[in-house]
Amino acid sequence: MLFHILLGLSFVSCFSTIRGLDQQRYRVLDMDTKGNLYLHKSALLCKNEIIKRLTNGKYHLAEDRQLLIGLSKTSPVLNCKDLKQKVPTLVSGVYWIDPDGGSHGNAFQAYCDQQTDGGGWTLVWSYTFTAYSSFNSAANAVTPRPTWTASSANTRVSTTVPLSETHYDAMNFALWRTIGKETLIKSNINNWIACKERTGSIVQQKTGSITCKLVKHVSKQCAGVVPNRVTMKYADGPYLSSSSNYYLFDGNTGSNWPTHDPCGKDKPNQLKGVTNPHGNIFVR
Ligand SMILES: [Ca+2]
Ligand SMILES: [Ca+2]
């Protein structure tokens, strides 16, 4: 990590008459762990003046708060959307979030997708399958499952926040709605979709209409088809559908199967033979 040396930002002319590097002005210095100093070309002070002030002991080392946002329990963001707004340049990864704000005692780490569809997505669930190779058998189901209502589901229930797309766990379902209303569903065996609430809502556990758009074609089949309805509190698990099921999060290993059909026809049209088949839900 680089530490910033924050300078007193008074404007000082560069009196040097020598052309070239010395004529450029700089705002801050960075120092890496080996003690190398780096000058940033932001036109506030010329290099000679900075070196003079450093030598005279007028400047001191300080950590830049901007660099720490989301990187410690004491400097969390509300969620990944908040982080995207505060530091748009940060890459996808694990950051500290505190969805209810206030005291940071209950802040926790979560994975942020800061790239897909504008970024700002907080990962709330990563799942795999109990019987991927016999996809439409009753034994197949998504696992683990969130603490949403699914009276017949029997796969493992998780309340552990997933820290990657292949770390199979789920944030406590009651917390999802504190993060946002939009959902992004990704899978490496079905198309990625981003959905907004209408009369239906995944996070509010309400059956009804939703507005979805395609974010990425994973499948070559049925380009452009997206679901327009979500059914929550279904016994085996929730599902998104258009003419029929598109994503069914079946959590029952004794009946049904977890449809991932890019055609929205409740057929086994998911990608086959994929290594580490999985899916994810993000909230924004
Ligand atoms: Ca809090
Ligand atoms: Ca099943």
Automatic annotation (TrEMBL):
Annotated signal peptide: 1-20
Q: Which domain of life is it from?
A: Eukaryota
One of the entry's Gene Ontology molecular-function terms is: extracellular matrix structural constituent
Query: Gene3D superfamilies from the xrefs?
Result: 2.60.120.1000
Q: Any idea where the Fibrinogen C-terminal domain is? A: 71-124
Q: Which NCBIfam families match?
A: GGGWT_bact
What is this protein's record name?
Fibrinogen C-terminal domain-containing protein
